[in-house]
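Structure ticket #2291
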Amino acid sequence: MILATHAVVGGALGLLLRDNPAGAIFAAFTSHFLLDAIPHWHYQLRAKERDAGMPFGYRLRFDRDLIRDIVTTGMDCAVGTAIPLAAGALVAPTYLWVIFWGAAASVLPDFMQFLYYAFPRSPLRHLQRFHYAIHAKTRLDHKPLVGIPAQIALAAIFLALMLAA
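Resolution: structure written out below.
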């Protein structure tokens, strides 16, 4: 799942559960794993490569490709965060802070995954083990004409719920 989809869902949960901000942020964080359990499309990260000697079989190369990946994922995250904030500004400007924190919490597991790849022997390996176990084994990376519209539809559903709130 791309970060924008996670952020839209997390931001929407922030608004929908605004009466319990801690619960909203927890729900947004948890939504990341639930969404990752659904077969979905990803864009390719250039710096991530297979390495049979590493836990979970991957590692990050710390080179020029990593900088490109950081820019790509940063833009993905920024757009995904801006969308629920813009929607929230229309319907509930007082709650932009919980929308922001919901979006942030929903992308946090992937940021923690990045930290895991930087420090594979850290305590983050437990979260990575869970993240890997729950992640859909069926991938739609080779089916962007299915995977991308599915994520757009999912984000649109949560945006509609936000706008109706």
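Closing remark: The CA atoms of residues 37 and 134 lie 6 Å apart.
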